Amino acid sequence: MTRRIHLGAFAFHPGGAHVTGWRHETARPDRHLTIGHYKHFAQTAERGVFDTIFLADGLYFWDRHPSGVDHYGQLRLEPLTLLSALAVHTSHIGLAATISTTYNEPYHVARSLASLDHLSRGRAAWNLVTSRYDEEARNFGGDHHLDHSRRYERGEEFVRTVEELWDSWDDDAFPADRQSGIFADRSRLHTADHRGEFFRVRGPLNIARPPQGYPVQFQAGGSPAGQQLAARTADAVFAGYRPLAEAQAFYAGLKQQVEDAGRDPEAFHILPTLQPVVGSTRSEAEDLAEQLLASTPDALIVEDVSHSIGQDLTGRSADEPFEFEPDTDTSNESRSPNRRADALRTGDHPATPRQVYARSFREGIVVGTAAEVADTIEERVETRAADGFIVQSLTLPYSLDRFVELVTPELQRRGLTPESYAPGTLRDRLGLERPARVVPA
Ligand SMILES: Cc1cc2nc3c(=O)[nH]c(=O)nc-3n(C[C@H](O)[C@H](O)[C@H](O)COP(=O)(O)O)c2cc1C
């Protein structure tokens, strides 16, 4: 039987997921801070009957190396502000914002997401991240990022506190009866009075329970601690793209952790990234991939590789071989696989920055015609490597326009994605139950 798959449309940067996607001939960097740019993105995804749009975020400007400022640093609108505007320009699609549990307070997040859920009539979602970089810490009064395991401990208490706040009020707690003058039914109120290790939050929340009960929660950390948090608390995981066998092992392992946590693995979606480069012909798609790769200036290639492997290669030529320092430790940033560093560590890697960069670019993309891209999607879903994908457009708006024009009809023809939206909330669309309100006895 064909499995119904779930799709999200990802906006990593306004110009697309590729670091210099903004340079493509069709890109319009002058429009990156306009509602028109994102309206086009969201409405295109909605035309393709995607389940959700999905906005990345970071709480810093990418300036560790000079080329970050010169070539890479793209400007971001704050996601919840942007999604509130997009709620008005769309009708069905989910609205997912990346939110850091390290640099926010639960009350702010519970309130913002509840607001978005009400305004969008049940379409809000968040992508829980613990953040990665010291640059982020320095915008919030610290020098260094909180220790990786502490970030996840804080993250778990954060989620629980947010849920307690959403449960402040029963679903029908506001009779607003003019006759009696009773606005709220006090017997349907619970004040959380949360006192934990990281947070003290009295509550109650000053907004009614969200239409979805709890807005949908994605989790993007892929380390063992990230997977544990996801298995206990999330509705879906946004995972990195891996080779097929590795993706199947990740999928099976995470579903098992969900089951071990006493939850239903079928109601938990694993959605890896997919970076399609699609063309009317394979050679058109390959040309586009080469064009995007070639658009990255040499200085950015060297500094992007430096950033990801934690070894400063700046000032070198992109074509100069370098000795990898195997003890380099980036583990407080992320403990998800660092594919570039791991390949260098095993010696299974070319040795110039340009080769490292090109290889990881090619490993992360799926290049071909609509049928070929649909084949990859279908194979990964049928062989239990994924329940769907978060589609990353290398250059925006072009890559998503092409996906919806070419790949969407192919997926619909194969019965993998629907041709129109059924009524209901994002939670309904993802086949997830609405969480019952939890009130301690
Ligand atoms: C596919 C994917 C997308 C991510 N997107 C973001 C993002 O937009 N913003 C962010 O701060 N972190 C993002 N992260 C990383 C998270 O910050 C994560 O919490 C961090 O890397 C540390 O967790 P880990 O060691 O479990 O990966 C992403 C991770 C993955 C796998």
Automatic annotation (TrEMBL):
Keywords: Flavoprotein, FMN, Monooxygenase, Oxidoreductase. Residues 320-330 have a biased composition (Acidic residues). Residues 33-385 form the Luciferase-like domain. One of its GO terms (molecular function) is monooxygenase activity. Residues 339-348 have a biased composition (Basic and acidic residues). It comes from the Bacteria. FMN binds at residues 57, 98, 148, 152, 223. Residues 311-354 are annotated as: Disordered. Pfam families: Bac_luciferase. InterPro entries: Diverse_substr_monoxygenases, Luciferase-like_dom, Luciferase-like_sf, NTA_MOA. Belongs to the NtaA/SnaA/DszA monooxygenase family. This is FMN-dependent oxidoreductase (Nitrilotriacetate monooxygenase family). It comes from Leifsonia shinshuensis.
